[in-house]
Design a protein that fits this description.
The protein has 308 residues and is of the alpha+beta class. It contains 13 helices and five strands. The chain folds into two domains: 113 residues, no CATH class; 171 residues, Glutaredoxin, CATH 3.40.30. Helices cover 59% and strands 8% of the residues. Helix 8 packs parallel to helix 10.
Length: 308
C-alpha cells in the first residue's frame, strides 16, 4: 500500500470515527455543511509546513462541536456508512492538498524518528566504526573530520565515487577516511573482500590495491584480488589459504553488524558525523558536509543568524 493510500485511509478513518461518535447525540449535517466547516477549520489550523495531527483532530472536534445537540433514541444513533463515506471521499478528492500536507508531515516525522534512532546506534557503534583493529585508514589518521565509506568492489556507484575519494585525499590534508568492506552483491564480491581484508593487514599500500580493483576491467573476484595483491609483492597462496580465517570473518561481520544496526542495504554508503548518506552523492555533496562538520559540528548548519 502506498504512503498516500495509507494517509487517505487514516485520515478518512479519523474523520469518519469522529463523525460517527458525534451523531450518537446530534443529527448529521449535510455534505455542503461538512465541506464548508472542514475547509474553514483547515484554513485556520494548517501550518505552512503541513497539516499536523493536532490540526486534523481540531477539524473533527469542530465538526462535532458545531452540530446542535438533540436527544435521539439509541436506534437513531447509527451512521450509515454508505452515506458518510462518499462525503468523506468526495471532500478529500476535492481537496488533495490536504493529503499532500499530511503525507509531508508523516515523512518529516518518520525521518525525525530515524535520525534519532540512528544517532543512538552510531554512538553505540563507535568502537567498530572508528576504532576497529587494523581498519583501513586513508588520509590523515588524526584528521579533524572522519568520513566512513561502506563499499562493494563490484558496485558501479562505488567505482563512480573513487575519483571523489581520490580528490578529497589530495586536497584535504586534515581528512580521515575509513573504508569498510561491505560485500553484498555476489559471492565474487565476498571472495574479493576476504583477500582485501588480509591485504589491509600488511604493510603494502592499500590504496594502490583498492585503486587497481576499481579501475580494472570485468568482475572483481578472487582471481582479480589475488592478482592485484601479487602485483604488490604479496604471496597469493598465503592469501587464498587465509580467506576463511577468524580475523577475516570478524572484519566482515563487523561491517554487517554496522549495516544491520543502521539500516544500510546498499553501496556506497557514507557516514559523516550523525548522517548516514546512501549512494554516490558526488564530491560537492561530500565537500559541503565536511565543511559543515568543521563549521558547526554537523553535516547541516543552520542559516546565519539562526540558533543551531
Amino acid at each position: 500500500m502506498s504512503r498516500l493510500t495509507t494517509v487517505l485511509v487514516l485520515l478518512a478513518g479519523a474523520l469518519a470515527g469522529g463523525l460517527a461518535v458525534s451523531v450518537a447525540t446530534r443529527p448529521s449535517v449535510d455534505e455542503a455543511r461538512v465541506r464548508s466547516i472542514a475547509e474553514e477549520v483547515a484554513a485556520k489550523s494548517a501550518p505552512a509546513g503541513g497539516l499536523t495531527q493536532t490540526a486534523v483532530e481540531t477539524i473533527v472536534a469542530d465538526l462535532i462541536a458545531r452540530q446542535p445537540r438533540q436527544d435521539l433514541p439509541q436506534s437513531a444513533a447509527g451512521v450509515d456508512a454508505a452515506t458518510i463515506n462518499p462525503m468523506i471521499e468526495d471532500y478529500l478528492l476535492g481537496n488533495p492538498k490536504i493529503l499532500q500536507r499530511v503525507s509531508a508531515a508523516l515523512d518529516a516525522e518518520l525521518k525525525s524518528e530515524r535520525t534519532a534512532e540512528n544517532k543512538v546506534a552510531l554512538t553505540e557503534l563507535q568502537p567498530v566504526l572508528y576504532e576497529a583493529e587494523n581498519q583501513i585508514v586513508l588520509g590523515n589518521p588524526e584528521g579533524d573530520v572522519t568520513l566512513v565509506e561502506l563499499f562493494d568492489y563490484n558496485c558501479g556507484y562505488c567505482r563512480q565515487s573513487l575519483p571523489d575519494i581520490a580528490a578529497l585525499l589530495d586536497e584535504d590534508k586534515n581528512l580521515k577516511i575509513i573504508l569498510k568492506e561491505f560485500p553484498i552483491l555476489s559471492q565474487a564480491s565476498i571472495d574479493a573482500a576476504r583477500i582485501a581484508v588480509q591485504v589491509a593487514d600488511t604493510d603494502v599500500d592499500y590504496w594502490e590495491f583498492h585503486h587497481a580493483l576499481f579501475t580494472g576491467r570485468g568482475q572483481v573476484d578472487k582471481a582479480a584480488a589475488l592478482k592485484a595483491a601479487s602485483d604488490l609483492g604479496l604471496n597469493p597462496i598465503t592469501l587464498e589459504l587465509g580467506m576463511r580465517s577468524p580475523r577475516v570473518d570478524e572484519v566482515l561481520q563487523q561491517s554487517y553488524l554496522i549495516a544491520d544496526r543502521l539500516g544500510i542495504s546498499g553501496t556506497p554508503t557514507f557516514i559523516i558525523g550523525d548522517e548516514i548518506i546512501p549512494g554516490a552523492i558526488g564530491i560537492d555533496g561530500l565537500r559541503e558536509r565536511i565543511t559543515n562538520m568543521r563549521a558547526c559540528g554537523a553535516t547541516s548548519c543552520p542559516p546565519p543568524g539562526q540558533p543551531g
